Amino acid sequence: MMNHASHDDGMESLVLNDDDDSSVHPLRPTPPQSPNSPFNSFLDPPSYADAIFTSFDSNGQDQTPAPSASDHFLHISVSDPQKEQDLSASLVPGATTFYTYLITTRTDSATEFSVRRRFRDVVTLADRLSEAYRGFFVPVRPDKSTVESQVMQMQEFVEQRRAALEKYLRKLAAHPVIGRSEELRLFLEAQGRLPLAKTTDVASRMLDGAVRLPRQLLGGEAEQVEVAQPAKGGRDLLRIFKELKQSVTNDWGGSKPLVVEEDKEFMERKDKLGEFENHLSNVSQQAESLVKFQQDMGETMGELGLAFVKLTKFETEEAIFESQRVRAADMKNVATAADKLHEYLGTMLAVNNAFSDRSSALLTVQTLSSELASLHSRVEKLEVASSKIFGGDKSRMRKIEELKEAIKVTENAKICADREYERIKENNRSELERIDKERNSDFLSMLRGFVVNQAGYAEKMAAVWEKLAEETTAYSKDSS
Amino acid sequence: MEQQRTLSGSSQSPRSPSSSPPFLSVSVTDPVKLGNGVQAYISYRVITKFIELLLSSLLFTAVLMCVVGPFLIRRVGTRKWNLDPQTNFPDYQGPEKIVIRRYSDFVWLRDRLFEKNKGIFIPPLPEKSAVEKFRFSAEFIEMRRQALDIFVNRIASHHELQQSEDLRLFLQAEEETMERLRSQETGIFKKKPSDLMQIFKDVQSKVSDAVLGKEKPVEETDPEYEKMKHYVFELENHLAEAQKHAYRLVKRHRELGQSLSDFGKAVKLLGASEGDSLGKAFSELGIKSEILSAKLQKEAHQLLMNFEEPLKDYVRAVQSIKATIAERASAFRRQCELAETMKLKEINLDKLMLIRSEKVAEAEQEYKEASFLKYPPLKAESEQATKTFETIVKLMNEEMGRFQEQKTLDMGIAFHEFAKGQARLANGIADAWRSLLPKLEACSSS
């Protein structure tokens, strides 16, 4: 069932479209990274827009997908966000608006089709998939919102969501099982309204704010709130991550263990992943600090440049001596260099926090655990129910046939649940292997991307300073 | 790191290009903290060498250098060398003299030179810091030492100032003598700072003149001089701002360095918990981050010494010019006052002559007697004041040109060092990250 070879090819081809179709580019439009740039020279580090929204799965590799051994390939792109009005049921006069995205799919048999979907549809798809494919490491869908409403511009938010959707759908398509699923097919192909029922399954709500798992599993609350508030990007993702970590550690370290897990191997791996998660979150925080300090550096460079511009102007205007004019010219060169640095440092930072984006790989494991937990709790409930039937009040005893029927039903349900549990465990094992490999390559790509980016910018900055050193070489002790 | 400069003469000092061939080469070295608590101060070893005679005493000097320990006070031979009698050079003991001096001794020298060389821009001293004195960080000490070294060498290479007897005393007098000299001047010169402040205010604003009780602000009306004054005051503002940002830049480097170090540690932890090739990749990343953190801290220090400090020095130099401007205003006022007084006396004399001739003879006699016995003749004094003023004007014009040239050179060097340092840092960063890539490749293929 698991075709590792084709999966890997699928992963390799999961490169993001830097020069994407979207017309919404609110930020500085510099040319995208040259796809074939060798490691040793980085002529054009990615623009701010590209940098924020691309992951580091791409490291300048060929963007056209290699002909894969798989017989099933989908290339998906998300584009053209449009504002539409919700004409149905709004109590407040004046319709609510939402954005739709054009989702274009091209299969390997060269057929192409498009549908228009809104984010709510994606949530539905994700829910159905996670229900249907328990035990598989289902890619995590993009967030509905982040913790509080932020000041991000609507355009930026829409663009961010578009990119995130694209990424998500491509991941789904690349998944060996989900890529072939009916749910995905319907989502991508069915025109008009999405023919998938919404679910009340709550496990997928985990990412939306600080939701506590046990309460949800037992209480069975359903939240259907779609908040269309823009997100702030990297920093809030971190916050979610932190809260998630919080809620998970509370669950598992809490007083009521919901599951007594017999699968030692699984528990070990989970523990290890938990530890890894902690460290990763720590790294993410530090990376964010790093970003901030690089930002500060850029700001100060800018201010320094400005101060020298003023000095240049002043000396030029007031110049009596030739030496003043010479000095003014020198100061201008310094100002130019500082300003260039200010510019570079401003654009490079967004890319640094690739680390925060890696939550997806880990969180699916947590999703899996929660599935198991919910199953177990159902089994428990059933057992409780059945014991009630057996040891209940004699005055409420039913007819014998009904009783037997009830017992049979309950026992069957329990058997089903057990079987499902075993199936999930089995899927776990193979999925864990797969995800290990995927995670490794994911992380290495991410690291590579981070390093390439840092090196590229450092090179550019060195060039700026070398130019200034050239311009002032007359003053060096060596030359005099 | 600047300790190696002991043998470099002022002609090689980056911030003091020689304006005349130096007879003297001075080094301020080996700062030592002495005293306790509030009384604590730093003493410096001031080594004076004679360039002319250096070759002949090279071996002697070499031996000397090897033997001298960091905290020892050494005396060199007391042979006197007669220098070219055509210069007004005071007699210097040689070929080398080492004395111990403290900050207030440098202040004494500066004040004396200022008093006796009006019109000349006296090289600036590093600030007297009451707060940092208690902490006396290694960085503060090094910056001060460097600034003092430059201060003395600038004086030694100034064609007028180098001939000063005060300089010779400073460089050669025994410590006890120096202490005596220093305490002697307390009365007169301690007032100076507040006086100067007063004069600054006068120069800067005509309004304050009225406030201070001067009915008629007596000031020069030379438009070119006005322009120069305005330039000096404006320049200080601009430079102070540039210096402020330069200092911030130093801080940013330090902060970023610290952040990289923290990041590196976190990544290493991650790598340790992971194991296998991925863990190794993370560990490598962590190690590189820590290396880069060290580079940033190093560059922060370089930046402070070679970029921020020259800017600060520039600001101080401008403040020194302002002091000279105040002196010039003072001299101008004196000249005017005396001229006024003379005019009034002459008017009185004429008046008396009109009224009664006998009285006039009396008055004239009185006047002559009085002035002969007690005061120098008014006319001579007035002429002296005029001469003083005119000297200041002439010197200031020369000094301004010299100042501009010197500053272009100083700043040019500072910019060059700045650029080189930053380029070195950026290249180091690029290299470090690049070197990680093959290691990552190895991890992914394994």
Automatic annotation (TrEMBL), chain A:
Record-given protein name: PX domain-containing protein
Stretches of the chain forming a coiled coil according to its record: 365-441
Ribonucleoprotein as UniProt keyword: no
Residue intervals of the PX domain: 79-195
Domain of life per record: Eukaryota
InterPro entries per the UniProt record, alphabetical: AH/BAR_dom_sf (IPR027267), PX_dom (IPR001683), PX_dom_sf (IPR036871), SNX2A/B (IPR044279), Vps5_C (IPR015404)
Keywords: Coiled coil
Biased composition range(s): Basic and acidic residues: 1-10
Region (Disordered): 1-41
Gene Ontology CC terms, in alphabetical order: endosome; membrane
Automatic annotation (TrEMBL), chain B:
Alphabetical keyword list: Membrane, Transmembrane, Transmembrane helix
CDD domains linked: BAR_SNX (cd07596), PX_SNX1_2_like (cd06859)
Ranges that cross the membrane: 53-73
Keyword Cell cycle: no
Keyword Iron-sulfur carried by entry: no
A Pfam family it matches: PX
SUPFAM superfamilies in the cross-refs: BAR/IMD domain-like, PX domain
The PX domain, residue ranges: 22-178
InterPro entries: AH/BAR_dom_sf, PX_dom, PX_dom_sf, Vps5_C
Region annotation Disordered: where it falls in the sequence: 1-23
Bias (Low complexity): 8-23
A GO CC annotation given for this chain: membrane
PANTHER family: FI18122P1, SORTING NEXIN
Protein name, per record: PX domain-containing protein
Source organism (scientific name): Flemingia macrophylla
Lineage: Eukaryota, Viridiplantae, Streptophyta, Embryophyta, Tracheophyta
